[in-house]
């Protein structure tokens, strides 16, 4: 993609306004927290203090809107604590330019590295830098700095208290995550009716798994509807794929295919009903037509072999899903010994070792997060010095704009930069005009600031340009409380925001961290993870007596995490203005489709695992042995642009096929697996040699995808 096209796409993305579900009650609660803090400070008679302290409640409220599975009061308090520390240090050093710049650069670097822990941690780190920059008053003593830090923390405490006292849709995030997974499976069942090998995105199931992790206290209070349906959703998906597959399941044409389509349609109806019940905390309501379809016809079973086993298992799983979801939704139960298997979410102190490991893993030159941290630290320091040197006042707005728009990848940084400037123009224009016409007093300005906060909370998910407009107007009215002239505020805000946005975009152009060169490493990591998943399943056919379901489950989760890392990397690479030095877009899509098929057919085989007392399969044993050796060579070949050769594996399968007269499920799935691997080899063999680009250094990243607390596949 050329630079002109990349910038055009980034601008279009930044100015896009999306239609999304609004949450007015939560927005009102968040804006009430800001209003309480401002009102108390004005009641005490200190407008400047009201301006300073309002940012604590404002920033704590923003973080509680993020898609995190942690309790909202905990998020508000954790962010408020970090804001208080950054405020205290910032106020102490603000009187000395050199000391403050050094503190700002170091703190911003740590905030940039916080993206290694997770997106919510990264956003919280960004907020702490913003609060450090917004030094409205400059205390001259340690006691004064502590007072301002306490007020910032008080704002977060108010938000946390309101969340506890006025809960809005408790467990709503967890319910939505589980309902989205069930609804996505319902859509998958419908697509399978028309496309028996339709792809499936496991991301909703990964989100549902994250949402199901609870603390011991939450496990005792969790609604009954959130106890079991996720595990059933995990088991339903491979059964759907197995029933629809024309090789393993129902034939492609004929009465059996018609029966399979009926079952898939009924399954979609049941899954949608269960998803609706979970999302809205209501009993399940099923149409009688779907229930009738899920019964065995009076004429007897119409499916045979593996398809019949899949159909019976699907009917049983759907019945369990309805039964679990249809229990009293308000009832809770204590954690018993039988329920010790729930996913345990570590407490905040126990997250420290994992966070340190994540930071250590990303502390390398080739890491895009490490380069982002260096980039944002340099821009923040340079922006502050430039803003201070300009004759506007409030020079912190330039680095503030840079820090708020900068993200670890190119597309988000540029799109947010465009959105930030355009939103600021609209926000300061409207607020400045209102200030010029109405000349509102201190209390009216405070009320208008609270209204802007409420609009920002309400419209937060519609687009960053809308959010920026609300924030810009909020700042104008907030400074109006302290008596700042609106003319100066508008001029400063526009010029310094433009400067900060330009610095952010220029920094990425001069010091990039392109994702394109990493595509082959990401693809190799996905191939290796898929291979371990396939080996774990085939090993169970080779030695059924040594069955280890946990090993298969862990391999599946690793495969999903590798797939998520690949898809994220591919999406970033598509928007970068560089000639491909990893994989061309066409080859990347073809290779991704081949590995997706590899994961799908392995999942189908998992449905039909043999019992512990079943005889071992010599063919599966030989196939697994050769697959292990072939995967090591193939993974290396993908990274080093070598040729993929599956001839040895194909020869083992042919011997297995000649010896197996029954053509069992494992043999047929192995054939499908080989076809997927051949498609991968074909996709990569069609890749042209890249043109040399001496001005761009390769930025290879051979590490596997890392998991974090908030976005891991586990």
State the gist of this model.
The protein has 714 residues and is mainly alpha-helical. It is 70% helix and 0% strand.
Q: Can you describe this structure?
A:
Belongs to the YccS/YhfK family. Residues 681-714 are annotated as: Disordered. It comes from Streptomyces tubercidicus. It is found in: Cell membrane. This protein has three domains: 3-15 and 23-169 and 365-510, no CATH class; 172-221 and 223-331, no CATH class; 516-685, Methane Monooxygenase Hydroxylase, Chain G, domain 1 (Up-down Bundle), CATH 1.20.58. The chain has 27 helices and no strands. The protein has helices spanning 3-15, 24-43, 47-64, 72-93, 97-113, 119-133, 142-165, 172-194, 203-212, 216-221, 229-244, 255-280, 288-293, 305-325, 351-362, 368-389, 397-405, 410-438, 442-458, 464-481, 486-510, 519-542, 549-574, 585-607, 618-639, 647-659, 665-685. It is globular and about 90 Å long.
Q: What low-confidence regions span 5 or more consecutive residues with pLDDT below 50?
A: 329-341, 691-714
Rg calc: 28 Å
The share of residues in extended strands comes to under 5%
Largest sheet: none
- Secondary-structure-based class equals mainly alpha
Q: Total domains, how many?
A: 3
Arithmetic mean of pLDDT = 84
Overall 3D form: globular
- Helical content stands at 55-70%
Number of helices: 27
Strand runs, count = 0
Order of helices and strands: HHHHHHHHHHHHHHHHHHHHHHHHHHH
Spatial separation of the terminal alpha carbons:
34 Å
């Amino acid at each position: 993609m050329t630079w002109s096209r990349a910038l055009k796409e980034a601008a279009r993305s930044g100015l896009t306004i999306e239609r999304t579900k609004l949450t007015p009650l939560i927005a009102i609660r968040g804006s009430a927290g800001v209003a309480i803090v401002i009102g108390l400070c004005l009641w005490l008679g200190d407008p400047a203090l009201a301006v300073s302290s309002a940012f604590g409640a404002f920033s704590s409220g923003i973080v509680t809107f993020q898609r995190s599975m942690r309790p909202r009061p905990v998020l508000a308090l954790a962010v408020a604590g970090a804001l208080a520390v950054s405020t205290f240090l910032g106020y102490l050093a603000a009187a000395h330019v050199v000391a403050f710049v050094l503190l700002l650069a170091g703190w911003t670097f740590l905030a940039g590295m916080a993206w290694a822990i997770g997106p919510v941690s990264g956003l919280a780190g960004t907020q702490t830098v913003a609060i450090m920059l917004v030094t409205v008053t400059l205390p001259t003593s340690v006691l004064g700095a502590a007072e301002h830090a306490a007020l910032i923390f008080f704002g977060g405490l108010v938000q946390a208290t309101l969340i506890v006292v006025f809960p809005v849709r408790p467990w709503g995030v967890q319910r939505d995550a589980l309902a989205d997974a069930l609804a996505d499976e319902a859509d998958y069942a419908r697509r399978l009716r028309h496309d028996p090998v339709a792809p499936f995105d496991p991301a909703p199931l990964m989100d549902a798994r994250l949402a199901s992790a609870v603390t011991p206290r939450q496990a005792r209070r969790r609604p009954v509807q959130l106890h079991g349906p996720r595990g059933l959703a995990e088991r339903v998906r491979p059964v759907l794929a197995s029933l629809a597959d024309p090789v393993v399941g129902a034939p492609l044409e004929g009465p059996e295919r018609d029966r399979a389509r009926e079952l898939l349609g009924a399954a979609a109806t049941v899954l949608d009903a269960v998803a609706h019940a979970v999302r809205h905390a209501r009993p399940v309501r099923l149409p009688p037509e779907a229930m009738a379809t899920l019964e065995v016809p009076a004429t007897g079973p119409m499916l045979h072999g593996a398809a019949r086993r899949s159909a019976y298992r699907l009917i049983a799983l759907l019945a369990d899903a309805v039964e679990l979801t249809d229990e009293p939704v308000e009832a809770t139960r204590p954690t018993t010994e039988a329920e010790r298997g729930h996913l345990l979410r570590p407490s905040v102190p126990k997250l420290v070792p994992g966070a340190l490991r994540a930071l250590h893993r990303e502390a390398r030159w080739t890491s895009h997060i490490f380069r982002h941290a260096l980039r944002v630290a340099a821009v923040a320091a340079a922006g502050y010095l430039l803003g201070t040197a300009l004759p506007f006042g409030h020079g912190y707005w330039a680095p503030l704009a840079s820090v708020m728009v900068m993200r670890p990848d190119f597309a988000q940084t540029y799109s947010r930069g465009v959105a930030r400037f355009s939103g600021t123009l609209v926000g300061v224009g409207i607020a400045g005009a209102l200030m010029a016409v109405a000349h509102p007093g201190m209390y009216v300005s405070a009320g208008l600031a609270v209204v802007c906060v409420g609009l920002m909370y309400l419209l937060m998910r519609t687009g960053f340009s809308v959010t920026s407009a609300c924030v810009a107007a909020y700042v104008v009215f907030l400074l109006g409380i302290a008596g700042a002239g609106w003319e100066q505020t508008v001029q400063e805000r526009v010029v310094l925001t433009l400067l900060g946005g330009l610095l952010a975009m220029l920094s990425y152009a001069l010091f990039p961290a392109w994702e394109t060169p990493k595509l082959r490493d990401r693809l190799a990591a996905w191939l290796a993870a898929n291979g371990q998943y396939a080996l774990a399943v085939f090993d169970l056919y080779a030695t059924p007596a040594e069955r280890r379901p946990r090993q298969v489950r862990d391999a599946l989760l690793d495969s999903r995490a590798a797939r998520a890392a690949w898809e994220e990397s591919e999406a970033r690479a598509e928007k970068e203005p560089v000639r491909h030095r990893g994989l061309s877009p066409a080859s990347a899509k073809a290779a991704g489709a081949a590995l997706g098929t590899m994961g799908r057919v392995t999942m189908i085989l998992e449905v039909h695992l043999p019992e512990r007392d079943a005889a071992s399969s010599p063919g599966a044993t030989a196939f697994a042995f050769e697959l292990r050796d072939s995967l090591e060579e193939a993974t290396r070949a993908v990274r080093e642009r070598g040729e993929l050769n599956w001839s040895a594996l194909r020869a083992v399968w042919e011997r297995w096929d000649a010896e197996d007269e029954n053509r069992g499920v494992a043999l047929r799935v192995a054939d499908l697996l080989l076809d997927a691997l051949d498609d991968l080899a074909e996709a990569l063999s069609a890749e042209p040699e890249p043109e040399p680009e001496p001005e761009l250094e390769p930025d290879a990243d051979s590490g596997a995808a890392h998991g974090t607390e908030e976005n891991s596949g586990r």
